[in-house]
Design goal:
Keywords: Membrane, Transmembrane, Transmembrane helix. Helices cover 28% and strands 27% of the residues. With 275 residues, it is of the alpha+beta class. The strands form two sheets. It has a five-stranded antiparallel beta sheet with strand order 1-2-3-4-5. It has a four-stranded antiparallel beta sheet with strand order 7-6-8-9.
């Protein structure tokens, strides 16, 4: 009886504890679990960063569209029936750009995008007397002001790829500010959310009733400027999710299929040209 109990005790002693093989198997399983957890964490973090970048891009799009629409809509605004009798009196001829009564002007320049790629970009100028309707910088005045929207290129000061607005007062002084700028560190594209281009089309109503034709700035004539009734602005934004470190494909996308640019088009009706 005693030898039997001794054998049983010896058997239990041999089976106690964890062997090296069991320990290695447990470590391997733990590493797989940790790898899965880290994968989920980084995937969630990437998704969150992408959503934040896209949200900031949408804010830039909304801001740009709002400022452009509010300013363009006010083209030709003046305190009718008080200081001025009509639009021709409120907005006299000025230099070679502005004919009497003309409140809208645009032109085309050359713009350099990353990679030394040249493209054409438009600028848009609006004349108004912002006594009640604010100008593009949120200011008002009792005299004629010229609001000019343009895109800053990579050699234009400290705010490249920004939508800028400059206000020229009746005295000739100019105040400028970048109203929409890139997102900085948000997203993988350092220019993400910034503006790569601005294209303008002018809707002309020859008979003063409804728009019959849209023209580029180069196609506009003196008579067309007097009959301008709508403005179509297309802004091209840098996609914050486009990997700028990669060489774009022939379709201008990165390896993940993200397009390099995203476009926003806004149609704005001029509301102060009845007089």
């Amino acid at each position: 009886m005693i030898p039997y109990l001794a054998n049983k005790l010896h058997s239990h002693t041999q089976q106690a504890g964890v062997g090296l093989v069991e320990l290695m198997v447990a470590m391997v399983i733990s590493l797989f679990l940790l790898a899965g957890l880290f994968t989920i964490f980084f995937s969630t973090r990437t998704t969150y960063d992408d959503q934040q970048a896209l949200s900031a891009l949408q804010e830039n799009e909304t801001l740009a569209a709002s400022i452009l629409a509010n300013t363009i809509r006010s083209a030709g605004y003046f305190p009718y029936g008080t200081t001025y009798a009509d639009r021709n009196e409120a907005f006299p001829a000025a230099g070679t750009t502005w004919a009497q009564g003309q409140v809208l002007a645009a032109n085309t320049t050359t713009f350099m995008l990353p990679g030394n790629n040249a493209t054409t970009v438009d600028t848009l100028s609006v004349r108004m007397i912002p006594e009640a309707a604010l100008n593009c910088l949120g200011q008002n005045s009792t005299s004629v002001q010229i609001n000019t929207f343009s895109v800053l290129n990579n050699a234009a000061g400290s705010s490249p790829y920004s939508l800028a607005c400059s206000v020229q007062s009746a005295s000739g002084s100019v105040t400028s500010s970048a109203v929409v700028s890139p997102l900085g560190a948000r997203g993988v594209n350092p220019n993400g959310g910034g503006i790569a281009n601005m294209q303008v089309m002018i809707g002309v109503a020859p008979n003063g009733d409804y728009v019959q034709q849209y023209y580029t700035p180069a196609q506009m004539t003196a008579a067309n400027w007097q009959n301008a009734r709508t403005v179509v602005v297309t802004l091209t934004f840098f996609n914050p999710l486009f990997n700028a470190a990669q060489t774009p494909t022939a379709n201008n996308t990165d390896a993940n299929g993200q397009p390099r640019y995203l476009k926003l088009t806004r149609v704005v009706r001029l509301e102060n040209l009845a007089q």
